[in-house]
Amino acid sequence: MQITWDCADRYGDPVSQLNLGAAEIRAVLDRHELAPSRSLGQNFVVDPNTIDRIVRIANVGPDDQVIEIGPGIGSLTVGLAATASCVVALELDRHLLPALAEVLEGRGLRDRVDIVNADATEIDWGTFGVAHPGSWKLVANLPYNVAAPVVLRILDEAAFVSEVLVMVQREVGERLAAGPGSATYGIPSVKAQYWADVSVVGTVPRAVFHPVPKVESVLVRMIRRPAVADVDRDVLWSLVRAAFGQRRKMLRRSLAAEVTDAQFEQAGVSPTARPQDLDVETWVELARAVAATPNP
Known about the structure:
Layout: H1 22-31, E1 44-45, H2 48-57, E2 65-69, H3 75-81, E3 86-91, H4 97-106, E4 113-117, H5 125-131, E5 136-141, H6 147-157, E6 161-169, H7 170-177, H8 187-195, E7 196-204, E8 209-210, E9 217-224, H9 233-244, H10 251-254, H11 261-267, H12 280-292
Parallel strand pairs: 2-3, 2-5, 3-4, 5-6
Antiparallel strand pairs: 1-8, 6-9, 7-9
């Protein structure tokens, strides 16, 4: 997907006290004859204090360029645009775009936000990075149904995104941040922590959303770390998928077709370990050993 953005040289004074409240959000929805889409995972934040909290925790400042995914009608967009130099808001649901534009225009923030009707699961992040050099932050209330795939793809393909703060379903957030030995530590954990330092930095009550979701939400922060050198990622992810596909088995069984005893020894990994016992650094060492001495 080829998309053009125009988000340069928009450095105005931060605007405050502009967040939407519950009554206004419902009025905007009614005026545009809109309703949150369950199939798209839309749950709009209706609490101004929660927006202030997200912007504060994300440490968004006047020099920051911010990507927002799923802005809806602008609950979080307003807080970001009032603080950052530039916001690119990616919204899949074209029906919401007029309402989003109206909210921003009413607050004098429209020229600080580029609204893009696009699917974040299909964006060409390489094109984005070429068009907009420099560092970006991702701050978003992500739709529950695409949260993990979107975050992992951005970490993998968008090296220019240096920091991430996303609101996701508690189960997803805890899985991304889980450490070795945890029952929730798995493929998403390894992939996220390969690219970044990941932590759950807050909880979000269900009552701050419209409609009220059935699940709880958390805020997950990711700070990109320096790229890992000298590892074949295809080999790494092949090992991780094979091992966690049989997570109850010892590695010597789940990886019997991919790793020899000599390679386990070279990497300093016990063949009797299980996949959830290995941290990211150990997975990398195992991948290096396998790539260095491929099996016949």
